[in-house]
C-alpha cells in the first residue's frame, strides 16, 4: 500500500468522524432556534469544520485538483471569521441599529489601557473594515489562483519571478529568489496571508478590549474553536512553504511530490478538524437557547428554516457594503442625527438603574444576576424568551423565564 492510498483512508475516516460530530452540534442549534440573530452566525461557524475537512480530503484523494480546491477553504474561512465578529457584536449590542451608539459611548483607551477621552466609534469602524476586507480578498485570490493555475502560470514548486505562486514568507522568497526585473509578480499567498492576519487580529482586538463585557457568553472557547483552525492552517502553510523553499522536503521512494505537497498537509488538516469538532461541540452548546416549557422553536421541522437562515448571505453582503461605507466615510454621515432620537447622553450604573452622568460605561452589556431595570427600554432581552420587537410591542415591558419583570427607567433612553 502506498502512502497515497493510506492517506486517503486516514483522511476519509477523520473527515467522516469530524462531519458527524459537527452535524450533532449543528442540529442542536437548528432544533433549538430561539435567537436567530446569534444562532444564524453560530451555524455558519460550526459549518467551517465540514468545509475544511471535505476540501482537505478531496485534495488528498485528487492531488491534481488540490491547487484549484484549497483556496476555497479560505473563502468559507472568511465567512466564518466575519460571522464570529458579528456574533461578538450581537452579544454586546443585540439591536444592530444601536451598534454605532454603543461604540460612540464606549470610552477610547490607549495602549496602556488608560482612557483618552472620546468614544470608540472610529475604532469600531476600523475593526469592521479589517474583518470584512477578508470576505472580499479571499474569493478574489481563489479565482485568481484557479485562473493562473489553468493558464499554467501558477506553480507551487517554482521560485521564478514570472510564476504567480504567492509565498507566505515574502522576505524569505525575495532573499532566495531576487526578481530578475523591476516588475514584482503578483504574490497571491502573501496577499491572502496578510488579509487573514488583519481580520484575525481585528477580532482578537475586539475580544481583548471587551473581554469583561463578553465574559457571560464564555467567548474564549468559541475564539479557540475558530481562530485555532485559522492559526494552525496559517502556521502550517508557513512551515511547509519554508520546508519546500529550503529543499528540506524532497520526494523519496516512499513519498511522491504530490504526497509531500498536497497529501501530508491536507491529511494533517483532516486530523486537526476532528479535534476542533469536539471543541465546537462544547463551545457552541445549544443549552443557552433552550426555553423552558417551549415545545417548538423558530427553526421549523428538522431545523430547515434555521439551516436556510444560515445559508442566507444577506448579512455578510450587508457587512461588506457597510465596510465600504465606513471606508469611504458614507457610513459616518448623519450619525449625530441618528443618535438624537435615542438619548445618547452617557449613563452611569448605580447598582439598580442607569442615570445620566458626565462619564460612564455604555448601558449594556450587563453582567449582573437576573434582568436589569431598563433592559426592555434599551431593546435588550438577556434570556431570549422574547425578541426585542415583542418587548416593544408589549409596551417595552417584558418578562423573562425566571419571572423577573423588565421595568423601563425613563423614556428616551435605549
Tags for this model:
16 helices, mainly alpha, 414 residues, 57% helix, globular
Structure description:
The chain contains 16 helices and two strands. The protein has 414 residues and is mainly alpha-helical. It has a two-stranded antiparallel sheet with strand order 1-2. It has helices spanning 3-31, 36-46, 48-61, 66-69, 71-92, 99-104, 121-150, 170-176, 188-209, 211-214, 219-245, 257-283, 304-311, 314-328, 335-340, 388-393, and strands at 347-349, 354-356.
Topology:
Elements: H1 3-31, H2 36-46, H3 48-61, H4 66-69, H5 71-92, H6 99-104, H7 121-150, H8 170-176, H9 188-209, H10 211-214, H11 219-245, H12 257-283, H13 304-311, H14 314-328, H15 335-340, E1 347-349, E2 354-356, H16 388-393
Antiparallel strand pairs: 1-2
Helix pairs in contact: 1-2, 1-3, 1-12, 2-5, 2-13, 3-5, 3-12, 5-7, 5-9, 5-11, 7-9, 7-14, 9-11, 11-12
Instruction: Specify the biggest β-sheet.
Output: 2 strands, antiparallel
Tell me the span between the first and last alpha carbons. 67 Å
Detail the poorly predicted runs. Answer: 157-186, 334-414
Q: Which H/E pattern describes the elements?
A: HHHHHHHHHHHHHHHEEH
Global Rg:
24 Å
Short summary of the structure?
Helix content is 57%, strand content 1%. The chain has 414 residues and is mainly α.
